[in-house]
Amino acid sequence: MKFTTHVIAGLIALAAAAAPAKAALISAGYFEGNDCSGRGGFANCYATTTGVTNIAASGGSPTIYKYNFGGGQDFGRFETISGQEFTVSYASSSNSLSFVYTPGADDPVIHYFSIKQADGYALFYDLQNAITSATINLTEYFGRRSGYSHITFYDTGSTPPPPPVAVPEPASMALFGMGLLGLGLVGRRKLPPTA
Predict the structure, then answer these.
(1) Is 176 a member of any domain?
(2) 20 to 30 A Cα–Cα from 143, which one of 14, 95, 155, 175?
């Protein structure tokens, strides 16, 4: 009985480990206005976890590609992107938008995308893993409105490097000194006389 339980638990663990991991897509929320507006046009938009801006100093991720509902396209800063890397489809019956991104060897990695509809946009991101596909139920983000204006993809997530960790030199020197002192005391310990 116990052996069978262990075998079943082992098989479940093996199946879970062998299953492909799904990206942890995060919704940054719904934002009023246009996702790429302001000076500089489409190529001057940057995505951050708090929205889209046209301020380059924001540390955000630049645009890669925009696909419009009618089939029109806009391109960002990446010359390797032709639009062929993207398959975008809208299902009116479920009001859902899906995409698949198949990057070439020199193509950028997607970490953000936004979906624009009417007077606002929804922003999604995954800073840990590249986003290569997703299906979004638009009703969850835009209510009963159907369709979309465009979907925009953004480059690699820009996260600031962590601050350098100070090495506590005095503490490590004290620890080293205590270790040497301990070794010295052990070496000086008197052994009992042998008979």
Answers:
(1) no
(2) 155
d(CA 92, CA 96): 7
**93-127 burial: b if 16+ Cβ within 10 Å, else e:** eebebebebebeeebbebbbbbbbbeebbbbbbbe
| 119 touches 87 (CB < 8 A) | no
Q: Is residue 188 part of a domain?
A: no
Distance of CA 118 to the CA centre of its chain: 26
* Per-residue pLDDT tens digits for 176-194: 777 777 777 766 666 666 6
Is 115 among the domain residues?
yes
CB-CB contact of 74 with 52 (8 Å): no
**Number of domains the chain is built from:** 1
Domain extent for 81: 23-154
Query: What's the CA gap between 149 and 184, in Å, rounded?
Result: 76
Helices (H), the chain: 2-18, 138-142, 169-188
Q: Which tokens belong to 38?
A: 């302001």
Q: Quickly tell me which residue has 């995409």 as its tokens.
A: 99
Torsions phi, psi of 121, nearest 5?
-145, 155
Q: Tens of pLDDT along 22-41?
A: 557 889 988 888 887 656 66
Neighbouring C-beta atoms of residue 137, cutoff 10 Å: 12
Q: For residue 170, is pLDDT > 50?
A: yes
| Inside any domain, residue 78 | yes
CA dihedral 54, 55, 60, 63 (to 10 degrees): 30
